[in-house]
What does this fold into?
Amino acid sequence: MKNKIVSVIFLLSVAAAPLGAAEESEPASGPANQAIRRAERLVEVERFAEARGVFEEAARFAPSSAQAHYGLGFALLRENRLEESRQSLEQAVRLDPSHRQALRKLGVVRARLGDLAGAEAALGEAARLDPQDPVARRNHASALREMGRLVEARKQIDLALALDPDSADAHHGLGLIETRMRRPREAWRAHARALELNPEHAGALHQLGVLIGRSGRHEEATEYFTRALEVSPDYTVARLNLARAYRKLGRHDLAIPELERVTALEPGRREAYDLLEGSLWAEGREGEAREVRMQMRELPAQAPGRSPIEEE
It folds into this structure.
């Protein structure tokens, strides 16, 4: 199941969302509240390392403050310190089991660590606590989808769409489920609708490129992948699929810089090294190909993947 997280073709982002209002079961002390407010202001300007230090200070002032531990977990997530983030978010939920934001972020972190069952449990509880929240429904649908529980995922995404019919993200989520159900026409319609609602929806652009590529129209697919990357340059799965399309077209020279960028963005993504080695050999760059092979041997057996769970 963990490999599924790393190799999942559908990359959804964990956005730098605001922390939101405090959801305290027990109010923090005066100094802790002041520290939390200061840290939240640092998060707003994306100074996450500084925010982490201030949230740690808040947690020392008020160790029973769920909001302090939630904020710390959020900052650690933005620093990609996943295991530490998980511990802080789980502590926030222990202190306040109804803390919806902590549950949502905990679902994202667990998914990135390969714990899909744990992610589904957290996201399902967040949706249960706030059944009228379309984002909670959508996130729960994503977890269910990645677990292969497609009928349940479809039910959750339908509920999300009923709550917010003009959500491009929800239509995109529906398209992902339809793809898993092997219904490409329905998937196309859903992603196309997402693009109508948001012409710069990187996920929908990417998925339309995937569907086009599966029909053998690789040149056209590159246009969609390129557009997705114009919107989101660090969208590694789109960049990886762009490289694959170039390779299908015999353009290894164009695939190589894309694959090099993927390995820079996600050093643990083994498949990118494998494709890069092949393209370097195809271009007669034997020394560089051997160097990439050596780098592959040094990769860990398993690296945390990007989360397939969307978060706002």
Remarks:
- Residues 200-300 form a domain with the Serine Threonine Protein Phosphatase 5, Tetratricopeptide repeat fold (CATH 1.25.40.10).
- The two ends are 25 Å apart (CA to CA).
- Residues 268 and 302 are 8 Å apart (CA to CA).
- The longest helix spans residues 30-44.
